[in-house]
Design a protein that fits this description.
Strand order of the largest sheet: 2-3-1-4
Helix content: 25-40%
Strand content: 15-25%
Low-confidence stretches: 1-33
Order of helices and strands: HEHEEHE
Largest sheet: 4 strands, antiparallel
Number of helices: 3
Mean pLDDT: 80
Structural class: alpha+beta
Length: 127
């Protein structure tokens, strides 16, 4: 997906979903139950600013980090693209990575992100 389209998706809070392949046959084995996303999931906030331009630059830095990392933290393995979004909550744009199901997952991601984004912290939000 082109960078501009990813930026629009992230800035609007939309997420893309991979299409279902009709050639996939349903499994007869019961899959392990995935953890359900809570009503207010966890995010790692890596930046906040009044400037949309600054927020977009931070977003690009997180995407670059994602693309450069060989193995993202375990809780982010389920994502094929950088799970980063820009959220507007007056008066600030907030740049967040996630969502994550639990505080423990968010702690693990925050610990890794702090090597690049020193002020990263855990925030709650809407999916």
């Amino acid at each position: 997906m082109c960078l501009l389209a990813m930026a629009v998706l992230s800035l609007t809070g939309c997420q893309s979903v991979a299409p279902f392949s009709e050639s996939d046959e349903p499994s007869t084995e019961e899959a392990p139950r995935a953890k359900e996303m809570p009503a207010r999931p966890f995010y790692v906030q890596v930046g906040s600013t009044e400037s949309r331009t600054d927020a977009e630059q931070t977003w690009q830095q997180v995407v670059a980090w994602w693309e450069a990392t060989e193995a993202p933290p375990e809780p982010l393995h389920r994502y094929t693209e950088a799970p980063v979004r820009v959220v507007w909550q007056a008066p600030l744009y907030r740049v967040r990575v996630g969502p994550m199901v639990s505080r423990d997952e968010a702690d693990a991601v925050r610990d890794v992100l702090r090597s690049r984004f020193e002020s990263a912290f855990i925030a709650r939000g809407t999916p």
